[in-house]
Automatic annotation (TrEMBL):
The chain crosses the membrane at residues 81-103, 177-200, 220-245, 266-286, 298-322, 342-366, 378-401. Keywords: Antiport, Cell membrane, Ion transport, Membrane, Sodium, Sodium transport, Transmembrane, Transmembrane helix, Transport. Signal peptide: none annotated. Belongs to the monovalent cation:proton antiporter 1 (CPA1) transporter (TC 2.A.36) family. Its main location: membrane. It comes from Gordonia westfalica. It is found in: Cell membrane. Gene3D superfamilies: 6.10.140.1330. Na(+)/H(+) antiporter that extrudes sodium in exchange for external protons. It is a multi-pass membrane protein. Residues 10-402 form the Cation/H+ exchanger transmembrane domain. InterPro entries: Cation/H_exchanger_CPA1, Cation/H_exchanger_CPA1_bac, Cation/H_exchanger_TM. This is Na+/H+ antiporter. The keyword Cell membrane applies.
Amino acid sequence: MGASLLLVAVVAVGIAALCRRYGLSSPLVLVTVGLAAGWIPNLPAPELDPELVLFLILPPLLYSAAQESSYQAIRANWRAIGMLAVGLPLATTLVVGIVAHLTVPNLPLSAALVLGAVVAPPDAVSAQAIGRRLGLPRRVMTLLGGESLLNDATALTAFRIALAAAVGLTTSLGQGLLTFAIAAIGGLVVGLVFGMAVSWVRVWLTDPPMETAIGILVPFGTYFVAEQLHCSGVIAVVTAGLFLGQRSVRLGYATRLQDEAVRKSIDVILEAFVFFLIGLQMPFIIEGVEGESWVQVGIDAAAVLTATILIRFIWVYPAAYLPRLFVRRIREHEPLPPPSSVFIVSWAGMRGVVSLAAAFGIPLMTEAHEPFPARAEILFLTFVVVVGTLLIQGTTLPWVVRTLGVTGDDRAQDRLAYAAAQDRASREAEHRLDEIAADLADDDPRRMQVVLMRKWITSQRNVAWEELGRGPEAIGESPTAAGSRIRTELLHLQRAVFIEERDAGRIDDEVLRIALRRLDFAEGQGDRDV
């Protein structure tokens, strides 16, 4: 199994690299290739392990998404996100469960609600990966991102309640609500405790490699502890991620640079692995429904997939507009969402690996030692919903975005905000330089450093204003950008000389590493200035 998982990861990353190189949507390509590869004879394709997904893949992806999210943006849109992350999964559980109960033969309502809870949460990875590539407006991405961070907790809690009823463990509505409340509040508390503790430790250490190492372990430890306390591990990880993301400004620059690089590398590997693994599950799923009427299976699959897609539209549009009719404060403080953006939010409901993991986690037997009703059919229908939404909605989402013209002016607004903030920062720095220069004699050699620093501050301000409202594609190469390009060329030249010196035996490898580290930092600094 270990060798199979390693092979899947290597192939998946290779495919993802090709997709990124040629501008293709890697989630969709990986799922498609996985579907095809699953039928190759004697291929050592691993069966999806729910524990692998829920304990080793989901936590770091959620943690990374939380750290990159904006707490202020989520707080400003808490009502809309709550409707999507709490209300919609519960509505999906109920509607899909009823449709499945009425459509699938011999499927009791309790087991049908298990299916509804399994397919309820849209996938965090799918929405973020495709949305980033399409350049959706920031508010749309905030809604999709905030929803994907929290809906897993709602759906998985609903799944546990429905599963308890289906296997014969009596669970009343009151017990279910109490379980949900304990899971949510407990997860919030665990996440805050971990976040505050880790934040204090990282600041106290002032050791970038160790700080980054601790950061890698945070999502796993937080999730594990929360689940052991019967709380929501998802909410705990998201809370810790949001808290530490806000506190990251207090870390040293080396830790922030390391954290971002390591986090993005881990995300690339896990996202590629997840989507490829989804495609590879088809043979295992098909085995379970062999001998069934394929006409009936097709009808069941079409009904459940259609219900899953339609309930999102039926929920999102009223949730976007009806509260404005009844609550004056919402009308006054929240902008009217354009219908095109509401449609995009409704259409971006791709399901993913969390749904499959939950489905594979359904037990084989009930408490009465009888086979779980229609377990194979539930697995198959879950797979159809996951792959169907990824391929149908995922492949058409770029076309829908272009057709509706859903583009934001976030870049222009960001340039304006950055230019204004950079101007204020530059003025403060220049004021400090004046104070330093006033304490230096006219012939003090340190005055040269003050002059150089002043030029550097001026270049920072110039970059911000030169591209205000327009990018390099519109104004061409600015003077400051030209200076940075020449500077980079000179750095490359110096790097080549140091390498030649090492190859000729005139300097040691340790000297070369010191030189390259300094040149790399100088080049990176130049890139950030532009």
